[in-house]
Amino acid sequence: MKKTKALFIISFLLFSALFLVKNKKLFEAEEDYKIVKENVYEGAEVVTSESCFLCHQNTKGYSQYHNPEYIGCASCHLGNTTSSVKEEAHKDMVLIPGNLSDAKQTCGKCHASELHKVENSLMTTNSGLIAVDKFVFGEADSLNAHYHIKDLKKSASDKHLRDLCANCHLGAEKKSFGPITQMSRGGGCNACHLNYSNEAKNDLENYLASDKKEVPEFHPSTDIFVNDMHCFGCHSRSSRISTNYIGLQETLLEEDDVKNKSDYQVLEDKRVYKYIEEDVHHTKGMLCIDCHSSHEVMGDGKKYAHEEQAVKIQCIDCHFKEKPNTIPYDSLDTESMLVYFHRDYKHKDKPIIAVKKDGHPLINTFIDSLGNAFLIGKKDKKVHALKPQGEVCSRDNAHKNVSCATCHSSWTPRCIGCHNEFDKDEPSAFDLLDKKFTKGQWKEYVAEFSSSIPAMGVRENEEGRIIEPAIPGMIMTIDLGSYSDKTTEEKLLFHRLYAPNSPHTTTKEVRDCKSCHSDPATLGYGKGLLAYEIKSNKGTWVFTPEYALNPNDNLPEDAWIPFLKEVDKKTINSTRSDFRPFTVDEQQKLLLVGSCLQCHKDNSKVMKQTLEFGLKPMLKNRSTSCVLPTF
User: Fold this and answer.
1) In the chain, how long is the greatest CA-to-CA distance?
2) Which of 474, 475, 507, 467 is closest to 244 using CA atoms?
3) What's the pLDDT at 1?
4) What is the rounded CA–CA span in Å between residue 61 and residue 59?
5) pLDDT of amino acid 9
6) Residues 6+ apart with CB under 8 A from 4
7) Inter-residue contact 50 to 72 (CB < 8 Å)
8) Statement: residue 39 has pLDDT above 80
9) Average pLDDT over residues 286-296
């Protein structure tokens, strides 16, 4: 019997692997898929001979493709399936499979390709985050070096990451039963794929309340039905994409400050958020994974320095100018094909949108016979019409190098006045990487959380030059002297670094022209009054900052660059080597348009013509009453 069972399991795994990787033609018809599924699961009664079923019989709640009647229990949980003695049967058992520490023996046995991708992804390595932190601490001279969070030691930067940042990576282990919540961090495969039904939650409560004697009837499901809560725990930190998406901006308020205030929300970790405006995609009921598919979330197996390099999807993939980039159903890769069947889609006779940058398919999209594009929401299967670019965007020659997010983001968070200091006497310090209490902890003191329309910066690399949203990411001081008693030349470090940002606060409407061409915070000067003054037929821009000057560099506290003054080319003022603020020449060109907007409205004929034909031809025909700025 043992020999028969072993031969079956080996045959089953080999056939499954061959089936998934090689025989893609078997998927071409749904009936073929059903036939193959029946053939693969033939002999299920042999698998159910595992001793696990002596106690754990008739359990429910599994996903269709992880049913133990077909794959057994040991495929995921390991253990000794030949013993009927509890202690022996549970030897070497993995209670919560799917953590990266055991993934090669559990999930990775069937999903080796996906595990390889995940292990190299930035969500696992945290490489970009570490690189920037080491740079600002003066421990590295590059923003683009590759690191892995598991390799952190005890330098000042490493300790800073351990104390404040090392919670959010996929290698962090899920050690307790229960669903994914706002407080969840890491968990390997569980981070995205673990789902508890209400019945599974109730059974878990009863199991724990009974001192683990009342065996649950309902098992949590491991499946592809990822919801936004799976993303929230980690992505509500740092640039706060998850909270931005649902319209929440972090504050420094306490829970007691906002009682009975409907426009505030207190998260599970007691952070207080104020409602601003949610992303238009969120208002439609769309999930994060409606745009960021498995190919992007798990990665492609390559190592990237920063997250924007790993993200391939662009707004123009769905909101195209003329025709979308597509792929036929019969050319789908195996991973996409599996998602198609898991989701029970029916559009195999229609072209599917493929992302232009790397060609991966957005499996929940299709193009009808008239050329209209649609997206099937993964939350509720609602079909959304994908509208092409607006006429203004498609014919606008003046803003070809401006990203969609720059104009279509309604707000983005701002954080200024950040001071980092090491408290060597902190008795309850907690190392987020090693998950243990220690003595001494870096502490971060923030002066202000606020929000505004995004500032703008320039991304310049081999792909071209494009204007993108920017936020004051690190206007900060680091008290190195508080960490080490050793004499150093520079005990207090100061950085004024802005970061590129994808706000995820998309709106159908666009920001007005003045908000780009005459708003001081947008141009990098910081908040304040930017006025266009005309005296003796001469125009001059004058800036009065809202914030006091920082004594470290004599710039306003929230500024990125000085007002219309050159910056030393050696100055590092960005968290990316290919992202920078506007040069003085670029500032002058932006403000030139801003001076025109003092009299001409955004939708006036003359301003619309500048979008189509450019500014120079229009200036040739300007009125004698037009007073242009003198720089």
Assistant:
1) 101
2) 507
3) 46
4) 7
5) 47
6) 46
7) yes
8) no
9) 96
Cite the DSSP H helix spans in 194-343: 198-209, 228-235, 241-245, 280-283, 294-297, 307-310, 315-318, 334-342
Instruction: Report d(CA 562, CA 574) in Å as an integer.
Output: 15
Q: Choose between 589 and 1: higher pLDDT.
A: 589
Cα–Cα distance for residue pair 628/606, rounded to 1 Å = 15
Q: Across residues 166-194, what is the average pLDDT?
A: 96
Q: Hey, how many other C-beta atoms are within 10 angstroms of the C-beta on 370?
A: 5
pLDDT at 481 over 70: yes
Task: Give residue 367's pLDDT.
Answer: 97
Count the Cβ atoms, other than its own, within 10 Å of residue 317.
20
**Beta strand pairing call for 464-479 and 412-423:** parallel
Q: pLDDT, tens digit, for every residue of 383-411?
A: 999 999 887 776 677 888 999 999 999 99
- Buried-state track 82-112, b at ≥16 Cβ within 10 A, e below 16: eeeeeeebeeeebebbbbbebbeebbbebbe
Instruction: Using alpha carbons, list the distances in angstroms from residue 35 to 27, 31, 398, 481.
Output: 10, 6, 57, 69
Residue spans of beta strands (DSSP E) within 360-435: 365-367, 373-376, 383-386, 412-423, 429-431
> By three-state DSSP, how is residue 70 classified?
helix
Are the C-beta atoms of 98 and 190 separated by less than 8 Å?
A: yes
**Residues 506-525: tens digit of each pLDDT:** 999 999 999 999 999 999 99
Amino acid type, 352: I
Q: What is the CA radius of gyration of the chain?
A: 28
Cα 263 to Cα 215, 414, 451, 623: the distances in Å are 43, 19, 15, 48
pLDDT at 393: 78
- Ordered alpha helix ranges (H), 246-345: 280-283, 294-297, 307-310, 315-318, 334-342
Which pair of structure tokens corresponds to residue 177? 């039963």
Residues 79 and 472: their CA atoms lie apart, in Å, by: 51
User: And the tokens for 525?
Assistant: 């000067």
Percent of the chain whose predicted confidence (pLDDT) is above 90: 78
> Does an H or E element contain 610, and which?
helix 605-613
User: For residues 177 and 507, what is the distance between their CA atoms, to the nearest angstrom?
Assistant: 39
3-class secondary-structure state, position 360:
coil
Q: Would you tell me how many other CB atoms lie within 10 Å of the CB of residue 601?
A: 12
- Which pair of structure tokens corresponds to residue 108? 């990775």
Q: What are 478's strand-pairing partners?
A: 420, 493
For residues 551 and 562, the answer to whether their CB atoms sit within 8 Å is: no
Asked whether 67 and 146 are in contact (CB, 8 A), the reply is no
3-state secondary structure of 466: strand
